[in-house]
Design a protein that fits this description.
77% of the residues lie in helices and 0% in strands. The model has no long low-confidence stretch (mean pLDDT 87). By secondary structure, the chain is mainly alpha-helical. Helix 1 packs across helix 2 (38-66).
């Protein structure tokens, strides 16, 4: 059961990242719609957003783990 749950969480993570990046791309396209380089700019924003948000999420998750927010009895590594 744990293996199915882990695979489901990975699939949800990937599909959510796709949805979020497409949303960012569309917003960037709207903001730059008059620019002849709209596709390149929107793609660049979406890629940068993906990388930055993944890194920020990692550090956010580590902070929660380190300070035991919401979890009793867990020792930080």
């Amino acid at each position: 059961m744990a293996d199915v749950s882990r695979k489901r969480h990975i699939a949800k993570t990937i599909t959510w990242r796709i949805v979020a990046s497409i949303t960012t791309f569309i917003l960037a396209w709207i903001f730059f719609h008059d620019d002849p380089l709209v596709a390149e700019k929107a793609t660049g924003v979406a890629i940068a957003e993906t990388i930055i948000k993944m890194a920020l999420y990692y550090f956010h998750e580590r902070a929660w783990y380190r300070f035991n927010f919401g979890v009793e009895g867990r020792n930080p590594d």
